[in-house]
Amino acid sequence: MPPMGGPRGASFLTEEEKKNAPKVTKGLLKRIFSYLKPYWKQMLVVLTAIIISSVLNLLPSVLTGKIIDEGLIGRSMSKLIFFIVLTLAVTLGANLIGVLESYMNTWIAQHITFDMRNRMYRHLQKMSQRFFTSNNQGDIITRMTSDISGVQQIITSTLTSILSNSITLIVALIVMFRQSWILAIVGMAVIPLFVIPTRSAGKTRWTITKESQACNDEINGILNETMSVSGQLLVKLFGTEEKEYHKYEEVNRRMIKLNIRESMAGRWFRVALSTFSSIGPMLIYLAGGVLMMKYDDSLTVGDITVLVALLGKMYGPVNQLLNIQVDWIRSMAMFTRIFEYFDMPAEIENAPDAVTPDVPAEGRVDFREVGFYYDKERQILENINFSLESGKCIAVVGPSGSGKSTLVNLIPRLYDVTSGTVMFDGIDVRKLDLSYLRDNIGIVSQETYLFNGTIRDNLLYAKPEATEEELIEACRKANIYDFIQNQETGLDTVVGNRGLKLSGGEKQRISIARVLLKDPALMIFDEATSALDSISEQKIQDAIEPLIASRTSILIAHRLSTILSADEILVIKDGTIAERGTHSQLVNAGGVYTQLYNTQFSKADQTSGSFEYSEGET
Question: What is the CATH number that goes with domain 181-298?
Answer without folding.
Answer: 1.20.1560.10
